[in-house]
Amino acid sequence: MNIVLAGTSGYIGGRLKKGLFRKHKIYDYKKKIPKKADILINVAGPDRDFCKKNVKKGINERLKINRKILKIIKKNKIKKYIHLSTIHVYKKSSLINEKSDLNKKDPYSISHIKSENFINKNFKKECEYIILRVSNCFGYPSQLKSNCWKLVINSMVKEIFQKKRIEIKSKVNFIRDYIGISYLVKIIEFYLTRKLNYETINITAEKTLSILQFTKIISNILKKKFKINIKIIKNTKRQERKYKIKSSKIEKKIKNTIEYYFLKDLNELILFCKKKYSN
Prior knowledge:
Elements: E1 2-6, H1 11-20, E2 25-28, E3 39-42, H2 48-53, H3 55-76, E4 80-86, E5 95-96, H4 107-122, E6 128-134, E7 136-138, H5 152-163, E8 165-168, E9 172-173, E10 175-176, E11 178-180, H6 181-192, E12 199-203, E13 209-210, H7 211-226, E14 231-234, E15 238-239, E16 244-245, H8 252-255, H9 258-277
Parallel strand pairs: 1-2, 1-3, 3-4, 4-6, 5-16, 6-12, 7-11, 8-14, 9-15
Antiparallel strand pairs: 10-13
Helix pairs in contact: 1-6, 3-4, 5-9
């Protein structure tokens, strides 16, 4: 299968390229595209920090990418499109699904919402598509100089081998839904051969962990597998409320692999950081 990928140099794009290239041919959307391309996948766009500092530019940059993709799809008659959005488009709530209220105040969320709206308005006549609202990913990058070290779990594991400790600087024991990046790659690979029904789909673990809970999981792996006892420094004084983000459109057989990929990606991230950042 010929796959055109937007965002090859980013964290998710790099891992997606690595995960798919053995079975498929991957082409950068900014470069030469084959005469026959089967699908275009978009994981490109400005991150949260950029959108926060450059509100209008963040929105326009994400829309600009989708306008370019639309032209490529029209010109090359590409019949399928997978677009990655984020679960951060939602307002906070105890239970969230694809119909839940959207957060139209946060710049990062707004940039994704506007792009989703653009896709729903303009792509249906040109190709099949789905929009994947993706949870908080973690896992090792395909390139060391990746933008993934801003992500809280990746940053935490890296710090273990640089500073020989885990320090939770936040005063809030915040709660997040986390998925291993390999699970996301598996889901995208699943949809390559499926009919895309113009849906918006949540990609989540359907459960949340507090940062302290995640820290204990990491600590236990370090102790049992690597015989490393790590110091945990915490400043948390307040607990965030629990919530759940439903991922009901994902088939059960795929959902059953969430825990496997969670542990796989966490162990691989620890090994990666141990190799690259141990003193």
